[in-house]
Design a protein that fits this description.
Shape: elongated
Strand content: over 45%
Structural class: mainly beta
Helix content: under 10%
Oligomer: single chain
Length: 76
Amino acid sequence: MVFVSCYGMWKYAILTIESLHSTLLLISFDHFSFVLDASRHDLDIGVGAQRAQRQSSGADYLNNITLGTRVRTLRR
């Protein structure tokens, strides 16, 4: 699964690579990225908060981003 999204200045992407024995999570933001090995742990990842607010024009917008995923691994 590949998840890519963009809100205003924030750009982020999550790439999940699953194989028979491991799960790797590549998380990339504007200026940095990192890889997590999820094959040994259950991971909760969350960034920011998402809420809709009203602008003076009455249009809804997201002033924060939400990025969350739960990775559960099975051991054999």
